What does this fold into?
Amino acid sequence: MQDKPSAEKLLAAARAFLNETAMPQLSGHAAFHARVAGNVLDILARELKLAPGFNRAETARLESLLGESGSLEELNRKLCDKIASGEMDLSNEKLKSHLIKTTMGKLAIDQPRYQGYKTAKANGWPEEDSGEIIK
Amino acid sequence: MGELSKQQFEERLAAMCARRFDAPIEHLKRLSGGASQESWRFVCGGQAYVLRRNPRGVQTSQNALPKASEAAIITAAAEAGIAVPRISFICDDDDGIGEAYVMDFIEGETIARKILRDEEFDNVRGGLAAQCGSMLAALHNIDVSTLPDLPFSDAEGELEKYAGYLQAGGHPFPVFELAIKWLRDNLPEKRAPSLVHGDFRNGNIMVSPQDGLVALLDWELTHIGDPMEDLGWPCVPSWRFGQHDMPVGGFGARADMYAAYRAAGGEIDEKATRFWEILGTLKWGIMCGVLMVSAFESGADPSIERGSIGRRASETEIDLLRMLMGED
It folds into this structure.
């Protein structure tokens, strides 16, 4: 068990330093990079919170789709092979639903403000599962 | 060449200006944007210039033209009546700043979000898609036999090149595999090859509040291939900058761009432009999720900017999924 402060709280402190202390003193290219660095910290904070559940949900779906178990990377690699060979495509509702949820999960972490993500939500695409209720 | 320190770079630029213009360099400023290219504005002898340089003076993308070829193509485009900045000179070994050239500075805006949102562009925004169509028709009409040697890459060539990057990268992207399968099954009909700008999109065009489109920039991906590529790329969702209902660059309708292209003598194959929109989205996804990540992780470009672009691959996955399901 890691000791305190928690990763979340440390990240929030680094974010506050960037926003309140560093950014006001920067200009030009350095200010731009500081803004990018701030966005990266936000991605990490969301990943820390959401990825464990998302990864459990994705793994469970992949195991069900492929009928075998393995690491997330191995399972994704096998899915890629099946798609590349034409064995699975979007006419497979289970695959379609899996790819939608997995992609929505990536966006929720990487870029929740992306227009395409907001459009997809408005069109009724489901969010990635939290991973708790999947079985 | 090794990486120059900021001081070395500035000293060499000053020496270059003294030798070439017999005048001191003033107001040197790095222009924002451009993870794959550096742009520096400076004034010398009362005239404003822009230095375009590969990052740290080295070739970082295997697809980018050598700076000397890029400058020669820009000069050929100018002769064909296409609005481009005038090339002043190509930097050589004596200049000692690596692969670079110097062109005249043109007044105008290149930042896509400003073009889409700032009030001063309200009067010209509606005409931009048509201006793009006319400019592309002129570009595709250039006699390729008059040009310096350029790489050839058509629909199948571009698709297989990027499929190869994906495979070499090794990270699994099921949505990209789905797009590759669809694209292989829907290759457009071959047409006569033409000059292709290769990076024609909002962000690489210069817009003025009075005249709209005033210059086409960023020629480093220029090649010979399918002209429909240049009509698909500006409609890639990532280049709409949040204005999703305006497919051309976030500022216009496809119909306006196509009509102007046809009026200027160009022929459009709408099945092919759709193919290129989807391939364009895949290409940007692979650039982010594979090529940028590889440049970042190998240490070739360890900047936070380069690293964070890797996480933009997911935006293209959601766009590809929507496109493959028949949405806009």
Observations:
- The two ends of chain A are 28 Å apart (CA to CA).
